[in-house]
Design brief:
This protein has helices at 67-79, 90-99, 118-128, 161-173, and strands at 11-15, 18-21, 24-27, 36-41, 47-52, 59-63, 83-87, 103-109, 133-138, 153-156. It has two domains: 5-52, no CATH class; 59-173, 3-Layer(aba) Sandwich (Rossmann fold), CATH 3.40.50.2300. Strand 2 (18-21) and strand 3 (24-27) form a beta hairpin. The protein is of the alpha/beta class and 175 residues long. It has a five-stranded parallel beta sheet with strand order 7-6-8-9-10, sandwiched between helices. A three-stranded antiparallel beta sheet has the order 1-2-3, with no helix packed on it. Strands 4-5 form a two-stranded antiparallel sheet.
């Protein structure tokens, strides 16, 4: 998939063989493998590279419209040993999922503005990317049986690091 720089969430810069994705530098020469690299020249003349390789850690996509809540979740999930991708809404999440093939868990708020809420996003993800595990969270919504795809977990807000870590370990331990 090819995305211009402005439409690639998390892409900060591209210089030589070093790209910055999701606040991390990825040195293409130091990967030690042959990652798939797709190039695209944008209208700004920048070359965007999207890298698909097997990360050493499992990847969690956090979808949360409130920036402070999202930053807190990022800190907790990184502390639990997972790599993070961030999206502020379902549309950004879909773009990231189309660009990255290594996402293992979707961690989404339920109440979000945009084209779909977290429950509809969870259903869409299960339909297009069945192996991705799903955790939905909310401080106001009550989730009933059947609201989440099979195997999805609901985590009420406020949550703590221990609850997040337990939920992630439970889901990622499943085959």
């Amino acid at each position: 998939m090819r995305l211009p720089m402005g439409r690639t969430p998390g892409t900060k810069s591209v210089t030589g063989g070093l790209i910055t994705l999701d606040r991390r530098n990825v040195d293409l020469d130091a990967l030690g493998t042959s990652p798939f690299v797709e190039n695209r020249n944008t209208p700004q003349g920048l070359e965007v590279q999207i890298v698909a390789y097997a990360p050493s850690r499992q990847v969690v996509l956090i979808v949360e419209d409130e920036a402070l809540v999202r930053m807190t979740a990022v800190d907790m999930i990184e502390e639990a040993g997972f790599e993070i991708l961030e999206a502020a809404n379902a549309d950004e999440a879909i773009l990231l999922l189309e660009a990255r093939r290594d996402v293992t868990v979707l961690f989404t708020d339920i109440e979000m503005p945009g084209s779909m809420d977290g429950l509809r996003l969870a259903q869409a993800v299960r339909g297009r990317w069945p192996p991705i595990k799903i955790i939905a969270t909310s401080g106001r919504c009550v989730v009933r049986d059947g609201d989440l795809p099979s195997g999805g977990l609901f985590l009420p807000k406020p949550y703590n690091s221990s609850q997040i870590s337990s939920a992630l370990r439970e889901l990622t331990a499943q085959a």
